[in-house]
């Protein structure tokens, strides 16, 4: 058992495909880890929902695992910070009980509401007002869809809530408050005020009294209740703090708290976040802007919504060989996939994979687009397909990185890669080669959950500032340089990758395919 003098800070990341819980000491060293997977369901093509109770059960299971592994005395626990999915929302009754499954951030049910909303607010005006491009993937469009397509559920809903405030409530929080860093993918915030936008709420047909008020990340929300203690294993009375949205937590966990710094989280989705001293630093419109996990600050973001999901899709549907090898030698199937990809040459013999399995986000914001292998020949084998999959994900990342370089005054000078997808050096090298920019990898790859723990540590008073907490708990472990031998190859491949996308999308074929799937599902 660790000594009683150890101070323990808990981070909870209630993600899309599973919950990670980690316990850290004051130097950012992991003391305990737990993970529990849970599913999304798709009752119709393009839809994505989640059983709220299944997510809560996952949080509890992962928490018990982490507590057991840490094996700390109760007095060691100082705080809990929460990271949650942004853009996933719940419909709750007066007692804050779920009335239905949550609607997940990548759900495409409201595709037609982009045009509906554009009739009430011009897309350019919406971007400047909310920080977000007008998109049917944000919460606002889905609330409009509920209003028009499920009016009974819409009327019954007392609270439209995010995971941040709901799961803190289940843990015992007395405060029913959200924060700007958890609201980015809602598309319902007035960006300069970092508060709800009454104009957008009016378009949705709701008022502020159906939403939690907006506080700040790291704010104290309450303490762990007896019931939550029994469910999770955390001691009664541990301080609960608002963390932030998952990507803002990842930025803090990667140390991205100064101008010129950015990190790209390679998880189920891939999201890149850069720190903004001021909204006046923005000089383009390819990205979106939100509240940072640092209170009263902003960040700027872009995304590739299916990066890790592409690898999981392969594992679940085509990965029998990798799964069998994983069982045989006791290694992750993903590490075996990367090893197999290494047996195919850079460029995968001309095979290209488009990674848009749940839409293309930055820079095209094309909700109807889908993925696919292009250029398949009889001479391609399984190793080429896996290499093309990894390269395709990296090319979509490059489109995002290029948007940051063009849209921010001064660009990006310190680029970091984080998340589960960076656990393989082979995959990190492919990303670095294709992006064409040096990258740094932090010691703790699970930056999202570390960022949540840092916000809890600061909020509970263990550190005087977020800067001090980051200095103590975040360390860079490795640096990668692009392999210049592959520079011309990947430049040519990227032009083809992007050109093929534009040819298909520009001809309206993705939309035709989406309409076809809706008719014949």
Automatic annotation (TrEMBL):
Gene3D superfamilies to which the protein is assigned, alphabetical: 3.30.420.40
Molecular functions (GO terms): kinase activity
Residue stretches making up the Carbohydrate kinase FGGY N-terminal domain: 10-253
Positions of the Carbohydrate kinase FGGY C-terminal domain: 265-458
Keywords per UniProt: Kinase, Transferase
Record InterPro entries: ATPase_NBD, Carb_kinase_FGGY, Carb_kinase_FGGY_CS, FGGY_C, FGGY_Carb_Kinase, FGGY_N
Pfam families the UniProt entry points to: FGGY_C, FGGY_N
Annotated CDD domains: ASKHA_NBD_FGGY_YgcE-like
PROSITE patterns: FGGY_KINASES_2
Protein family: Belongs to the FGGY kinase family.
PANTHER family membership: SUGAR KINASE
Protein name: FGGY family carbohydrate kinase
Lineage, uppermost ranks: Bacteria, Pseudomonadati, Pseudomonadota, Alphaproteobacteria, Rhodospirillales
């Amino acid at each position: 058992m660790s000594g009683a003098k150890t101070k323990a800070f808990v981070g909870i990341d209630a993600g899309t495909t599973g919950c990670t819980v980690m316990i850290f000491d004051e130097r950012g060293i992991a003391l305990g880890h737990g993970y529990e997977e849970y599913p999304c369901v798709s009752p119709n093509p393009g839809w994505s929902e989640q059983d709220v109770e299944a997510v809560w059960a996952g949080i509890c299971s992962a928490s018990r695992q982490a507590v057991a592994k840490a094996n700390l005395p109760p007095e060691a626990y100082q705080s809990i910070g929460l990271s949650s999915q942004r853009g996933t929302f719940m419909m709750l009754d007066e007692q804050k009980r779920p009335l239905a499954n949550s609607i997940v951030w990548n759900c495409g049910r409201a595709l037609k509401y982009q045009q509906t909303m554009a009739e009430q607010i011009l897309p350019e005006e919406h971007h400047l007002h909310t920080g977000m491009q007008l998109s049917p993937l944000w919460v606002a469009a889905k609330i409009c869809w509920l209003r028009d397509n499920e009016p009974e559920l819409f009327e019954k809903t007392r609270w439209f809530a995010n995971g941040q405030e709901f799961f803190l409530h289940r843990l015992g929080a007395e405060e029913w408050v959200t924060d700007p860093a958890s609201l980015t993918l809602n598309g319902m915030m007035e960006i300069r005020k970092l508060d709800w936008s009454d104009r957008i709420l009016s378009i949705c047909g709701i008022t502020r009294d159906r939403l939690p008020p907006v506080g700040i990340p790291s704010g104290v929300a309450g303490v762990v209740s007896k019931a939550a203690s029994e469910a999770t294993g955390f001691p009664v009375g541990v301080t609960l703090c608002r963390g932030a949205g998952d990507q803002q937590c990842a930025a803090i966990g990667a140390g991205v708290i100064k101008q010129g710094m950015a990190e790209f989280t390679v998880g189920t989705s891939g999201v890149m976040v850069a720190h903004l001293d001021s909204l006046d630093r923005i000089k383009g419109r390819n990205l979106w802007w939100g509240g940072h996990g640092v209170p009263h600050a902003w960040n700027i973001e872009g995304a590739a919504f299916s990066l890790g999901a592409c690898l999981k899709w392969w594992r679940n549907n085509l990965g029998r060989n990798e799964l069998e090898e994983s069982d045989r030698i006791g290694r992750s199937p993903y590490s075996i996939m990367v090893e197999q990809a290494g047996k195919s040459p850079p460029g995968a013999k001309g095979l290209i994979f488009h990674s848009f399995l749940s839409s293309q986000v930055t820079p095209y914001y094309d909700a109807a687009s889908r993925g696919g292998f292009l250029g398949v020949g009889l001479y391609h084998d399984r190793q080429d397909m896996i290499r093309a999959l990894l390269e395709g994900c990296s090319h979509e990342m490059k489109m995002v990185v290029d948007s940051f370089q063009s849209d921010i005054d001064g660009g990006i000078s310190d680029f970091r890669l984080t998340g589960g997808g960076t656990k393989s050096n082979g995959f990190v090298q492919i990303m670095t080669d294709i992006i064409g920019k040096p990258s740094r990898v932090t010691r703790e790859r699970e930056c999202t959950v570390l960022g949540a723990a840092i916000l809890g540590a600061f909020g509970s008073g263990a550190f005087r500032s977020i800067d001090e907490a980051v200095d103590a708990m975040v360390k860079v472990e490795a640096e990668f340089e692009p392999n210049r031998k592959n520079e011309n190859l990947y430049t040519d491949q990227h032009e083809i990758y992007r050109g093929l996308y534009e040819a298909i999308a520009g001809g309206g074929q993705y939309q035709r395919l989406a309409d076809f799937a809706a008719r014949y599902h």
